[in-house]
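Hi, here's the filled form for the chain we discussed.

Project: internal
Contact: R.S.
Residues: 847
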Amino acid sequence: MKVIIDGKVIEAEHQQTILDVARENGIYIPSLCDHAELTPFTGCRLCLVEIKGRKGYVPSCGTQVEEGLEVKTNTPQLRKLRRHILELILSEHPSACLICAEKENCDEYKSTIRKVGEVTGCVLCSNNKHCELQDVVEALKIDKVSFPAVYRDIDIKRTDPFFDRNYNLCILCGRCVRVCHEIRGASAITFVHRGSEEVIGTVLDKPLLEAGCQFCGACVDVCPTGALTERALKYEHLADTEAKMVCPLCSMGCELDVWLHEGRILSTFPSAEGVVNRGQGCLKGRFLIRDIVGSEKRILNPLIKRKKEFEEVTWDEALEFAAEKLKKYKAKETAVVESHQTSCEDAYLVRKFTSEVLKTKNINSEPVLSPVSEYQKVARNSHSNPNLNFNLNDIASAEAIFVTGSDIIESHPLIWLNILKAVKNGARLVVVSPASNLLERYASHWIRVKPGTESLLFGYLSKTLLKIQTSQEIPQSESIQRYKKQLDKLVTSDLKGFTDLDKESLEEVAEVLADAAPTVFLAARSMGVEAFSALWNLSLISRAALLPLSLEANERGLNALTSGSSRGKTIDQIVRSVSDNEIKALFAVGPVSLPKKGKLEFLVVQSPFMDENAARADVLLPSATFVESEGTYVNAEGRVQRTHKVIELSENAKPDWWILTELAKKMGAKGFKYRNPSDVWKDIRKGTPAFVKATNAHLAKGSDVFLKEEQNGNKNMAPVKFTAESVATSRKFPCVLIADFGLDYYRNLTLSQESRGLGLIRNSRSVQMNPEDAEKWGIVDGDPVQVISENGKMDGAAKLVADIPSGILKVHYLLSEKSAQSAASLLFPSDKNKDLKNVVPAKIKRG
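And the returned structure, exactly as it came back:
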């Protein structure tokens, strides 16, 4: 359609607002409450415009264009009205600096005066120079405020992690409330009180830690003033440069904007231009990167252990020492531990070093507890080769979403945002989980299932679905007929034994899967191959896309590098071989929890950080962090992304690719003549068909490049053995404690220990109890409980049982020897915790 704005004829689309069309065409209309990703609020009234033929003024942010509409945005009456509105806003906002006649001459770098407790002007505010209110005051040329100033004298909220809430600076634009509700789905904050007392807050004025806040920082990022401010920036200088990077702290690969001052990271923000995240992120990418880089645990110089003490040496000495020692061991006596958080270039050289220099097959190339690994095992078992790639829009546009696993909001926050989009567009959400989480609030069906019985649940759903579908809706292949016969043995009356479903509820869920199209299955956590096989078959019967979600930053990239080659060993097999004295020399690039049993003769640790295992090393090679090097990563979608160096190397730390190249040369290896990561990438593309489209030129431009999947298009039914592996309780041990795989780490650094804020968030979680059990033992919400690990025996496969005397929950971890080393290395970051004598304070939550 055509509209006329300020005499200019403009082409516009249906459902666009006047404000959107004006911005697209370079016409300035001031606004403080409007945001491109949020629904119109029409609260600040600064965007008022005149429309020919209509009385009065209308808010342009909430008025859609119509054919032939004539709009005026800058008349004398509008300018006067906007100035009065803005002066009213400024009468309750500290405005001394905004209207100061000397503000052009003010030294913007006087950051020390920000140490005062109250913000009374822009130079005291850490949002200075990044404040939309400043921009609007400048645009409307406000030099005085005609109304008397009112200071609201609201207590500043400083008790929660990462950011302060100073509502004395709040202009009640509602952006933070809307982003928390509409985009993040948390609804942790809202408007409270009315009239002059109105303020943003939480229910009953609870801290954000207790109000369901995700601490994603989205509210801070949309705030147009300094009302919500990152605490770490309060005493900092203003940024002098900015950069972009790809975050490797989860598997989504969000693009971040980085603020720097004199080459030092001040803060990171989700980039509005990021193709994956589009301005959204999570607490780790938003608040932790600065802490990671500046950690006191950083190893900054090569170290060699002599007489049981570390000694700083040159790189040449450290590499020479490591090379000479490693040469003495046979191939079968050596092993390598890699990390699924390193770049493709670094991972390629780790594997090349393992196979060509050490000539060993002892490398943990397969990630543990990975849905992607389980998916590929099931694909091989069913002689299928489907495409692993997907797009986040596939989730946002689904009509039904079936989620299995634990808290996807914590493990895959960007996936959750797209689930929420789909639900808000009318999609049905089915959640299969043993414990309650935020997904339950939005689920049409939440199925509580006992851990270890998921394959039975998926089998019952498949059986029900086959009954209600016609033969035309399901291919009548031989594998389906075999599977039908297997499903006939399942008795529906047994369903109540391991879920909270009855027959009617089961049929309701089956109807959802039968009627919706497209349907997406999301596997967010490891369940075991049998359960995954049953889920695979259920997705085929539902004609749904099954998407396994990788857990770590570059799991898909390392998986592509492994394709067609030996998959090596699992981490627990390597650790067991160390215990059995079969492996005598270990080269650790990734995190590993080494046993006290067994004598490891030589340990090389290549890592950015010191931990208990690094302290046992004979040689420490300090590697660069992700912000100090460039490289290529593949996110959960299969999207290939290049990230660039943001800051210079810390002291004597070196990139992983450089260390491996130089060490290989010291050991006399050929074929390691790499000058930079681009040289390594050329080698990767030559030998890895999945990366054939990902040229250096494409990646440098940020082009949309995905892994090339060699698929045959087949998805056959997978063989399944229906078994119930649920943990059996007893009179002595009547409760089951469900543990999960923690993802809060980078390389060998435990983030919840490094960041006090993250530690508070993770440790504020409650112990959730079955209401019937809580009633039986007289435990109510909020009762203090201690979860005590006090049994170090390794007996019984991953069984966690509990005894509750006098309100104390004593948890005994009983692990089989086969799974003990794997569980210890994954779940417990230190030898102290691995002994299972860790005391964790918590609170009971019934549910």
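Let me know if anything looks off before we file it.
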